[in-house]
Specification:
Structural class: alpha+beta
Shape: globular
Mean pLDDT: 74
Distance between the termini: 31 Å
Largest sheet: 2 strands, antiparallel
Low-confidence stretches: 58-81
Radius of gyration: 14 Å
Helix content: 25-40%
């Protein structure tokens, strides 16, 4: 049984691999972030960059973390929906 997010996950992984192959090692993290954002936009993936999200650790305590939050949408805008 396929997971509902499998097609989106495949696009995200494809974008990350493309950036890895094109840039290789040695750049600042900000360069890779910009490249991944461009690759995601190219694939029509809408995202919020460094949005606060809640995560639960093994002790089940909630904490706020920053990360790249992505979701699929019909819009091609890369800013807040």
């Amino acid at each position: 049984m396929r997971h509902q997010f499998e097609p989106l996950s495949a696009k995200i992984i494809e974008a990350a691999i493309e950036v890895h192959r094109e840039l290789g090692p040695g750049f600042l993290e900000s360069i890779y972030e910009s490249a991944v954002m461009a690759a995601l936009r190219h694939r029509g993936i809408v995202y919020r960059f460094f949005t606060l999200i809640s995560s639960i650790n093994f002790a089940a305590a909630a904490s706020a973390k920053r990360g790249l939050l992505m979701w699929q949408s019909s819009s091609t805008s890369s800013t807040d929906p």
